[in-house]
Structure formats: C-alpha cells, structure tokens
Amino acid sequence: MLQRASAPPTGPRGRAGPRGNNSSTTAISRGGIRKRRSGTPRIDKDGDLDMDTPVEGMGGRGRGRGRGAQMGNQNGGNTIAGRGQPRNAPQGGFFGGASVQQAILRGMARGDARIRGPRAGLGATSALGETVDRRRERDAGLDQIRVRGLKESKAALNEDGGVRDLLAFLERKANGPDTKPGDAVRIKKSRSEGDSVIISVRPEDAPKFLRLNAFQFAHSILAIERHKGPPTRDDASQPFESAEALDTKQILAGFLSRRYSVEQKLLDLSNLGADQRLLGRGFFDQDSTASKLFPAMMKIADQLFTSSKEKREAVVSVVLSNNALKDISMVSSLAATFPDIKNLDLSNNKFVDMRSLDGWRWRFRNLEQLVLTDNPIETLTPTYKDEILRWYPTLRMLDGIQVRSDQELAALAANRALASAGKLPIPIRPASFLDQGQVGENFVKHFFPAYDLDRENLANSFYDARSTFSFSVNTSAPRALGGEGQKSLNWDAYIKGSRNLKKLSHLSARMARAHTGTEDIRSCWSTLPATRHPDLLSMGSKWMIECHGLPGLTDVTGQSATGVGGLIIVVHGEFDEVSVSTGITKRSFDRTFVLGPGAGVGGIRVVSDMLTLRAYGGYESFTPEDIDPSTTTGVTSVASKQPQIPEGLGEPTAGKSLEQVRKEQMVIEMSKRTGMTLEFSNMCLDEKAWDFDSAILAFQDVKVNRTSPLMR
C-alpha cells in the first residue's frame, strides 16, 4: 500500500469517539448535519471540482489527516535533498545521460505546460450520477469571460503560473467588502487558453466581473471582456475545468518537475508519503484518493510529451523505492506511461514473491537494470532472480550484479534484428520423423479422418481403460496476420473443460478435467464441436508431424519389469470447426500422442492424448528454409527421405541399454540431416563425444561439395 505516518490528534477533536476511534473518517455517524471537510481535493471522473466548495486559504492546508493511505515510510526517505537522487544508487553510471527536455520540464515548473483534462465520451456518467451530456447542457447557460494579463504579472512566476491567485483576486474584487456570504458570486469553471484564462460564471454575475477590466493585479493591468465565439476545438470535446481541478493538476505537475533530473533523465518517485506538499493537499487522507494519486501523476506526465520518442529520450530511469509497496497495483500505470525505461529502482518496499510483480511480467522490454534490494522477496523467494531473467531478456544488472554478459546481449540484439527482418535466428528444419515399421505413420493417417467422422468407433479402436485424454485452450498464442487470424473467437465450447495448468490451481479442478478410460474419453469427445482436418496426402504442407521412439513405457500385461518401447508423436496443424450456430471457424491445434503396444488396431494403444487449441496461426512456419513448399506433402514425403535403417536399430529391445538406444537414434537423425551414411554418421558423433550440435558443426566445416565420399 501507499503509506504515510499519521500525526497524533490534538484538541477536542482528538478525543476518542464512540468506539475509541479518533478518526473522523471512521467514526459512527449519529445523524444530523456535519460540516464538510474542505482540505481534500474532490475530483470527479471529468477532472472537475465544484468551485462552490470552500478551500481554506486557497493554500491547500487540509485539516484532518485521519486514516492515512499507505505510501512511503517514516524514515524520511533515502533521497539527497534537492537532487532527487537515491543515496544507495549503484555507482558507475546507473542513471547517466545527457541533458534533454529542459524546455518541457521548465515550462511544467512555471505552469506554462497546458494540462488537459480527461476526454469524456458521449453518455459518460460523472461521480454525481448525471451524464456528461447533461452537464454540458447545464454549463451552456454560463457566460464565458476572457481575462488577459496574467502572463505579464509577477504571479506568473508562481508554481502554478499564478492561476490560483488570479481566480481568488477576481472573486474577492467582484464580491466587494460588503457582500453577504449568501450573496457571494463564484467562478464556476475556468481553463487556460493561450495567454488568457477563460472563466465561466452565472449570467447575472457576469457584470460584476466585467467591471474589473483595467484593474491592476500583481503589477499587471488586466484586460477583461466577454469571450466571443465557440470553444476551441480541443475544449469542445471535454467539459471545462474548475479552478481547483486546475490547481490540483498544477500541483502534481510541479511535483513531477521537482522530482525530475534533466541531466540524469531520472524521475524520482520515491517516498511519496513523506512529501509535505502532497500531504498538505490531503492526498493521503483517504485510501480512495491515495490510490488515484499515482495514475493521475502518470496521466499528467504522459500529456507533457508529444511523442513516444520524446518520452523515451527524456525519462530513462525511474525510482520507486521507500513506498511500502506490497504489490504493483497502485503503480502499475508506470508501464503504460514509460514502457521504454532502462533502469528501475524498487528497493526498500514490501514485495514478498513474484506474484506481487506479476502485472509487469513481459513489460519494460528495454529494461537493463533492476534493483529489488531490501525487499522480503530476497529471503522468502530466493529463486526470484531466475524468474526475473526470464521476464526481462535485455536485463544486464540485477541488484547491482551483472547477470548477462556483453556477448549474450549482443547476440540478443542480433536476433532481434533478424526477427525484425522476418527471419528467425534458428533455421526452420524439416520434421524429424523416426518411425518404427510405419506404426506412427499409419496411426496418424487413420486417426484424424476418424476423429472428424466417427469419434465413438475411434475411441473403441485405440483407447482402453488406462488411456488418458485432456485438452486446454491457449488464448494468448500468436495469430496469423489478417483473415481468420484476426477474427474474434468464441471459446465457450472449450473453456469449461480446459485443463490449462497455468490457470487451474486447485487439485480437484485439475483432476476433473483429466479423462481416463474409453467411456470417459468418448463422453468428453461428444461435447466438443465437430471438426474437419485438411487431408494429409494432398495438403501435407499444412501439417508438422514429429515421431520419436520412447522406451520404458509401462507394460500393461505385466510381462516386462523394465517396460516396453513405444512412440511419441507431436502433431501441429489446423482444422475447421463446424457449428450450426456460428458456421465454420478455423483454428490451429497441437496434439501429443504417446503410443504403446496394446490390443487396439495394429496392435497399439493410446497411452496419453493431449490436445491444445489456439487461434489460427497459419502454417508458413512449418515450411523448412530453402525447401520448396510444393515438395512437402506431409507424412509420406517426410518418411520417404529417411535412410535405410536396419531392423531394430534405434529401438529398445531386450539386453539393449537406454544409452545405446539414444546413440542409435542420434546416428539415424545425423544421417537424415546430413545425407551421410549411418557408418560415417556414427564416426562423426563418436569423434565429438556424442554431442549432436558439435557433430553437425563439424560436418558443415569439412563439407566441400555434394560429391564428398562421405555422402551417400
């Protein structure tokens, strides 16, 4: 939470209430009329404040500081006074950088920067329950008056540009010394427009303000006249801002200016709860106002820049230390406002695990340095560093320690360049289909047509009482560009049965979505929509199928204590989902089968069947590089390119160790990829201590041409 220390109550108001609670915000009301507190800014959804609400001294000294929203701690922060730099910042250029954005930040400090209010859409509803359209209708009855001369006055040097003092001056002079409180005139709305301030007042009050023309204000002569013409284009789509709303925005803009270092490109937002100006305005008097403070700051900061490039060059580092943050919920908008920062300091907060930071996973894609010291996560979650490295691939420094070398980061930059050019850093290779006696090929050819036409008989043919099936939905998978890939998909038919282990945390829910036995699997299949897969033989380019031997499967007959050999088949493809109500929807899928000996068709059984459904992603990534797609015709073409393998080679048999099976399978794969004979493939792998990648590189180094004696 955002935290500040509450001051002890004094005077008669500090005595305990009905339940010993001295906070006026939590005391039980006994009815009657209570005086409204005026110190806390009351901003509605339109960014407006009611000017009829009195503000003590216009200086922002809020009275009660009862139950404080939590922001910061009681140690006064760890920043260097006047510089906004953390005392414990890592040395050696942690926040280095040249001077930029002086004009923007200097203008922000003077109040020259125009802070726009939120845009309200048609029919939007304000905090008071009335629609924006109705409020504009009501405001249309106000007279608008233009006031010039503020920029030439000494008040223009004030933090808010002098607007607050000007409005107070106009109201004081318009009312006069003899005006009774009930007859006082008020400025209902105000906004800045160029070098003028436009105020909105009731028609009957307009003459009292117009007679102030040529009055002297802060050594400047004011020019006051009726505002002619419609509102400007920028202001036509939003309601006017009240004086106090504008004042609040200027205070926040001034705060950002004070906390920004132009030379270091650093925005220091540490220990916010100890800032006396924010405390004086009552931003921490209630949880509701404290929770809106940081998003309001980010909105104002975002409006100070005209482009993402300008923002990226101006703010490189952000400090959020000493804010007693248990999670990032209150400061999550930082990632949207400054997504390209390179340095982030989150030290001395209350983060206990990675879940408290989960909202920033995969954000800040250019982050180079992160500080999480003095957080409970260091001791309660010692493996957090491994997770952080996965979240931020460009991270160089973590807690002051280098976690990636310059070479790793250079390789990453090269891979990004290839990706931006439409190339992957790892070449796309043909599918590895190491079948045994065409068992896997025949199964695949039979399974998918039967799944489309007759699921009941399919379940009886390959599944038994020990077979398992489950499916899950991956809604975050990449989609194909254009066409079906951009279509809004409905997953209602799958979500209830989806076994996504990243989203299901309860064991009972996980177990209920794992189907075991022929009857249970057949019942589950009957609830899934009808499908139509592309033909394997004529449209093989739309499929990617891999097949490998899998030794050590449980022998259901109990005859082999060491297990039996099987196959694992991974299928990537697509299908058309056929529905009477929604028509045809194209989807992509991934399906993994584990096959073993059994009483099913062809003497095999499905041990495990896992299906993943996702939005249509196309099939272009299945095509190997430098291979004509027209030559890729699915399983048949892949199998036809396999070397002539002696019977039993690469298969688990009695007396053959698992290590020997693994080496034989590597020899087969080496021969398939390089075109060498099995004998020379074995020699090449043996020379490289059975390191497959090293053997491939060695082959590429010595290969001269296709007529080498090593080639078949």
TrEMBL record:
Annotated localization: Nucleus
Domain NTF2: 439-613
Protein name: mRNA export factor MEX67
UniProt xrefs under PANTHER family: NUCLEAR RNA EXPORT FACTOR (PTHR10662), NUCLEAR RNA EXPORT FACTOR 1 (PTHR10662:SF22)
CDD domains to which the protein is assigned, alphabetical: UBA_TAP-C
High-level lineage: Eukaryota, Fungi, Dikarya, Ascomycota, Pezizomycotina
Family annotation (Pfam families): LRR_NXF1-5 (PF24048), NXF_NTF2 (PF22602), TAP_C (PF03943)
Family, as annotated: Belongs to the NXF family.
Biased composition (Low complexity): 1-20, 68-77
Record-annotated TAP-C domain positions: 661-712
Key words, A-Z: Cytoplasm, Leucine-rich repeat, mRNA transport, Nucleus, Repeat, Transport
Listed transmembrane segments: none
Organism: Glutinoglossum americanum
Entry's Gene Ontology BP terms: poly(A)+ mRNA export from nucleus
A GO term, aspect molecular function: RNA binding
Stretches for region Disordered: 1-96, 625-657
